[in-house]
Design a protein that fits this description.
It is a single chain. The protein has 412 residues and is α/β, with parallel strands linked by helices. The protein folds into two domains: 231 residues, Alpha-Beta Barrel (TIM Barrel); 129 residues, Lyase, Ornithine Decarboxylase, Chain A, domain 1 (Beta Barrel). The chain is 30% helix and 21% strand. The protein has twelve helices and 17 strands. Strands 1, 10, 11, 12, 13, 14, 15, 16 and 17 form a nine-stranded mixed beta sheet that branches. Strands 2-3-4-5-6-7-8-9 form an eight-stranded parallel barrel, surrounded by five helices. Strand 13 and strand 14 form a beta hairpin. It is globular and about 70 Å long. The termini are far apart. It binds pyridoxal-5'-phosphate. The site of pyridoxal-5'-phosphate has 18 residues, from helix 10.
């Protein structure tokens, strides 16, 4: 079970809305900091542990700067993400560049920044060499194919476009060794939004075993293994968050059983979590502007799926709080909808909620990752502002809302 709480009261959010009209996203700095500290502490036993925050989850340099202060690097997959990282002062091997179908210019920038480049395919070795040169450290993304089962969001690894096969991994490391590379890492991302921690332990075992096999067969001792992201969050109140401390201990046991006896210690452990770091600490704040009774009862919001696409994209559940009605009985069933001319623009379907009146403030939970970031301009929707609720409870605008001028700016 998860208590769906808010870091602000009704009076506090009304004061914020007086300055910044809805809809907007607001991030809770205190929540983000405390959470990431717990995560890093859970792996304090691991030599050189580092979390490379997946920038795509919340691509705002103000958020990146907070995470940098907590000791995180960034996981980037495009040129603009590399530039965001640079803006936040996260440079060199604090950047993991995990891209796919990568344009040459992006490899050139990643190499210039000194990022750790994580190649998605064996053919990218000559491509990288030609355009950017061979770096001093390299990583490869492993796709275990039929050796692993994926989960709902990410799907079956055999159907996944990412990574190298097991034989290609051996060949790629061999080729890079021949080219003079001395520092190696491996990466795999097969699970997404997963709440069962056993899946991560399995990823750890899978990569540890690969590290053992590389040492035996190629004489290569890896510098790091990167478990990537995918730790889920309890979007539903009846779900429970992954116990990060327990997860750290389970992986420690595998490290002791597999890495130490095989002479691979110290082997650095890296993660690239996004969702779990910021997801629960971001909220989409919106106003109910219409009520409609036809065959069903609808609540129309001033936000739409352009502000938060997950419900429309995956049928994802996002908890909703009606401000000031937290204790009221949930005796109404509503479809809570946005204004796009798309009938899947629904934040909730048949949701049991208290009676909602126009003017009520609705807060949509767990929008801190893959929320604003997935925004778009379809139907002439303008992207909303992003606010930071600081630890001292003051609010800072960290991205202004788009204007009509922004919308017209790219037209020739
Ligand atoms: C999306 C992504 C992540 C982060 O995934 P979360 O589910 O947000 O933790 C990490 N690495 C790569 C390569 C990704 O594409």
């Amino acid at each position: 079970m998860t208590q769906k709480t808010l870091p602000f009261s009704k009076a506090e959010i009304e004061k914020i809305i007086a300055q910044y009209p809805t809809p907007f996203h607001i991030y809770d700095e205190k929540g983000i900091r405390e959470n990431v500290r717990t995560f890093i502490k859970a792996f304090s036993w691991a030599p050189g542990f580092k979390e490379y925050f997946a920038v795509k989850a919340t691509p705002n340099p103000h958020i990146l700067a907070i995470l940098k202060e907590e000791g995180c690097g960034t996981d980037c997959s495009s040129l603009p993400e590399l530039l965001l990282s640079e803006k936040a002062g996260i440079l060199g091997e604090e950047i993991m560049f995990t891209s796919n179908e990568t344009p040459a210019a992006e490899y050139i920038k990643a190499k210039k920044l000194g990022a750790i480049i994580n190649l998605d395919d064996i053919t990218h070795i000559p491509f990288l060499e030609k355009h950017a040169g061979i770096p001093e450290i390299i990583s490869f993304r492993y796709n275990p194919g039929p050796l692993r089962k994926g989960n709902l969001i990410i799907g079956d690894p055999v159907e996944s476009k990412y990574g190298l096969t097991r034989p290609q991994m051996f060949e790629a490391l061999k080729q890079m060794k021949e080219k003079g590379v001395k520092r190696f890492g491996i990466h795999s991302f097969v699970i997404s939004n997963e709440l069962n921690s056993e899946s991560y332990v399995e990823t750890a075992r899978m990569l540890f075993q690969l590290a053992i096999d590389f040492k035996k067969e190629l004489g290569i001792k890896l510098e790091f293994v990167n478990f990537s992201g995918g730790i889920g969050i309890p979007y539903r109140p009846d779900q429970t968050a992954v116990d990060l401390t327990a997860l750290g201990q389970k992986i420690k046991a595998e490290y002791k059983a597999m890495i130490i006896p095989n002479g691979l210690d110290p082997l650095k452990i890296f993660a690239e979590c996004g969702r779990m770091i910021t997801g629960p600490y971001g909220y989409l704040v919106t106003t109910a502007i219409h009520r409609k009774d036809i065959y069903k009862q609808y609540i129309g919001l001033d936000a739409s799926m352009a502000n938060l696409m997950r419900p429309a994209l995956y049928g994802a559940y996002h908890h909703i709080t009606v401000m000031g009605k937290e204790q009221a009985p949930c005796d109404h069933s509503y479809d809570v909808v946005g204004s796009l001319c798309e009938n899947n623009d629904k934040f909730a379907i048949n949701r049991e909620l208290p009676k909602i009146d126009t003017g009520d403030i609705l807060v949509i939970h767990d929008a801190g990752a893959h929320g604003h970031a997935m925004g778009f301009n379809y139907n002439g929707k303008l992207r909303s502002a992003e606010l930071l609720l600081k630890e001292d409870k003051t609010v800072k605008l960290i991205r202004r809302a788009e204007t009509i001028d922004d919308y017209f700016a790219t037209l020739v």
